[in-house]
Amino acid sequence: MGGTPDYFAEVFHEDGFGELALLNGPYRVLGRGSNLLVDDGKLPFGVVRLAGALTKVWPVVGGEGDAVFLEAFSGVSLRAVARMALDIGGGGLEFGITIPGSLGGALRMNAGAHGQEIGPLVESLAVFDPKKGAFRELRKPEFSFGYRSLSVGGSSDESPFLIKALLLLTRRDPRDIRTTMDAFLSRRKATQPSGVFSCGCVFKNPPLPIPPAGRLLDLSGLKGACIGGAMVSKAHANFFVNVGNASASDFFRLINLARTRVLKDHGVELSLEVEVWKG
Question: Exposure of 5 by Cβ count < 10 A (0-12 exposed, 13-18 middle, 19+ buried)?
């Protein structure tokens, strides 16, 4: 679903970043597309994705006490990072086993689940500035995380290309980590749509004490609402699924319907969590 970019390019190793300056025009960075909605038609930019050696994760020797470190390139899936944490007995990333995105996407959106987020685990970030053609290592407070957001240098500027991250975990018995992961996976299977195409959670949760977005949508009777091939999931109302040959415009119209209904019924204006690439 969605439009066609000017070009598609993959970077397979760190040396390849120098070639990004040779690309014509602007580009967007694609992770695994799990929380992304792409407009129909021709897109006025290219798309770049990390591949090859830039999809690896590895343990870092040297943690003292209960500290456990691992490092990973942004192109690796968050689930693979969570599995590595399990293998080395690093606790704190158990929630990541339920999130299908890439590490880079998880960092950019401060992904989280089950009351946890990845931001507090990040010790440092390696970024590439395509304008300067230079790599930088960032440490706190050169970056900070908010709700579904990452700020670099005091702003949410998305120009630095996230290359890799160093994560600080806490030593934990792998058997306990596995038990927690299994519980999270079971809860996900019971409460969220599976086996269907979706773009992840559509709306951010409003601040407490306002109910979560999915609950507001449910209270407004939107489960099962359908426009074209796009439908509000009957399993979880904050997931919109492609039940046919849906277009992006079907999803945009369904999003507008949902926001209008929730605003009318509850006086709450929902903000998008899904990232939108407009044509």
Answer: buried
Are 83 and 170 part of one and the same domain? yes
Domain shared by 184 and 199, yes or no: no
Q: Is residue 242 pLDDT above 80, yes or no?
A: yes
Contacts of 127 (CB under 8 A, 6+ apart): 135, 136, 137, 138, 152, 160, 161, 162, 163
The pTM assigned to this predicted structure is 0.92
Region 74-81: what's the mean pLDDT? 98
CA distance linking residue 128 with residue 254, whole number of Å: 37
Q: Do 46 and 103 reside in the same domain of the chain?
A: no
CA distance linking residue 161 with residue 143, whole number of Å: 13
> 18 is in which domain, residue-wise?
8-52
Say whether both 66 and 165 belong to one domain: yes
Mean pLDDT of 199-209: 95
